Amino acid sequence: MLISSPKAIAEVLKTIPKGKVITMGELRDKLAIAYGADYSCPMTTGIFLRIVSEAYKEMLDGGGTETWPYWRVVRDNGELIDKFPGGTIAHAKLLEEEGHTIVPKGAKSHRLVMQ
User: 110-113 and 101-104: which strand pairing?
Assistant: First the structure.
């Protein structure tokens, strides 16, 4: 089992093309393959993805220009991730800017309509 790192996750995020998304499961699979592991820890991958999303926001606020498109990751069932900066509303906005259709699932939840 791979216990990844925020840096490794940021490197995978950089490979996701604009207009595309991957699921958390696909992210974990990409990490496991890259490091020759059978699978990646779901808990630490989620924690480190959140760290990357928050670090990215801080970097942009500080004038940085590097891109770690964390918003291109959704839950395995297509739901948006509420732990990202700005919650699911901000996550939906970033995906919609890349041409995705988002539908409300509940009061605080949104789901990506896969295209």
Answer: antiparallel
